Amino acid sequence: DMGGHDTYMHKEISEQPDAVDRVLRGRIDDRFSTVHLGGLNLDAREARGIRRVKILGCGTSYHAGMIGAGLVESLARIPADAEPASEFRYRNPVVDPDTLYIAVSQSGETYDVLAAVQELKRKGARVLGVVNVVGSAIARETDGGVYVHAGPEVCVVSTKCFTNTVVAFALLALHLGRIRDLSVADGKRIIDGLRRLPAQISEILELEDEIKKLADLYADAKSMMFIGRVRGYPVALEASLKLKEISYIHAEAYPASELKHGPLALIEPALPTVAIVPDDELLEKNRAALEEVKARSGRILAVAHQEQEKADHTIVVPKNEDELDPILMGIPLQLLAYHTALSLGRDIDKPRNLAKSVTVE
Ligand code: M6R
């Protein structure tokens, strides 16, 4: 049932305010400015002993894990990174008892992720899951975890589950942070920010007509460049994947700082750049990247908290706490990919060559 929407993708994009509400519900503890995660199965002493966090997933879940790693580093001050599960599995990784491993999966059935979990467990590691489908294979194999509560996602491309997964990571990072060195004040700041998300997502969804017009303008591109920096880089990666999957337009994502190390050679009017430009401590750096692109007469579409002078178009999104901004900045780009694919007449819910869950190697 598409509930009045033309596609599941559109329905699922629209459901995000409710979905985010659901992942937060019942978990916030205002008294201690922290969260309760019932299924985590990790006590405070164990949480204090974690020396590293390694996040494993595929595709969109890997991108959500990249943002998750950034949240764990900034809120809990634990070194963290994300890696595609299959890469991890085949490079005979050093498995370390002080590392917390986290498997991320919407379906909970992705073979590469499941196999990585099994390999880790065989080696005695502690593995948690950040999973959407309750009772799925990965949920069962892991020692505990955080359910994402995005609800069923039917469209082959992931949208609401991406957003909810990142929010689930924010909860986990807040929880670990408050056991370690995150202050009550910072805990409260993040909780207040999390509570603002559903209404802010609704505000972004109201920009759909404007985004549709932009999509029509850019749909003639043969290729698109997505750039972002630190927190913005996984947003760029995910936006580029979304565009590829459903519009079949070639897209690349780069850290903004890497442009001058090569990809700047590609910039010309026929290759538009989508830039993630949050109003944070890196704003001036990001503006400099826009200038580099503009100087090569590249068209620029910015996603930012205020109009960007160097950009041809800016999608202005509401500001949250710096750490949570990536959650909001991805949403207009889901709509951009959607309307680009729509104007090209693509089969949005079932893109060619793809399956919803990849249960084979
Ligand atoms: O179910 P999972 O989250 O484990 O799936 C992982 C990827 O296969 C998935 O995210 C894929 O990249 C989607 N088509 C993204 O839109």
TrEMBL record:
<keyword id="KW-0032">Aminotransferase</keyword>
<feature type="active site" description="For Fru-6P isomerization activity">
    <location>
        <position position="356"/>
    </location>
</feature>
<feature type="domain" description="SIS">
    <location>
        <begin position="214"/>
        <end position="351"/>
    </location>
</feature>
<comment type="subunit">
    <text>Homodimer.</text>
</comment>
<keyword id="KW-0315">Glutamine amidotransferase</keyword>
<protein>
    <recommendedName>
        <fullName>Glutamine--fructose-6-phosphate aminotransferase [isomerizing]</fullName>
        <ecNumber>2.6.1.16</ecNumber>
    </recommendedName>
</protein>
<keyword id="KW-0808">Transferase</keyword>
<comment type="function">
    <text>Catalyzes the first step in hexosamine metabolism, converting fructose-6P into glucosamine-6P using glutamine as a nitrogen source.</text>
</comment>
<keyword id="KW-0963">Cytoplasm</keyword>
<keyword id="KW-0677">Repeat</keyword>
<feature type="domain" description="SIS">
    <location>
        <begin position="42"/>
        <end position="182"/>
    </location>
</feature>
<dbReference type="GO" id="GO:0004360">
    <property type="term" value="F:glutamine-fructose-6-phosphate transaminase (isomerizing) activity"/>
</dbReference>
